[in-house]
Amino acid sequence: MAVTEVGHFMDRASADAAYSELMQSGFSPDDVSVVGRRDEAVPPRQPEQTVTTGGAATVGIIEGLLLGAVLMLIPGLGPVVAVGPVAAALSGIVTGGITGLVVGGIAGALIHSGVDEERARYFEQRLREGGTLITVRTDDVRGEEARRILERHGADVHAAGARG
DSSP H helical segments within the chain, as ranges? Predict the structure, then answer.
């Protein structure tokens, strides 16, 4: 059975670390989504945010991912950037391609991704307050591992994964 684990991070460094560990643990980038408000997810770079390695400037993992992400205007939330499966669901909701959902916006995209409505509404509210969401769509066996990784890096996971 498939599960979707969701974690909310208030700071980008923790989200970066969680995303990095998910990738190192073998989760597919095709199953991991990152969603953030445009003004917080990809802020103008300040000198102290740039890391130089071998003469090349780099940005944080999440910031780098979101630089090429889908930008959407979500009513009541404002500009949102997203990458991964949730971005596709958001795009469909924003353009009207997904029908039958009672809830729109971030909550609707999370519900479409397999998160129960109560948790989806909770995470939409958390995103309104700021920060970044990371979702991981996987099977039940790896769902617990994904949740532990998110929690280890300080994510608010609200409850165990949603069954889908």
Answer: 12-24, 38-41, 61-67, 85-95, 105-112, 117-128, 140-152
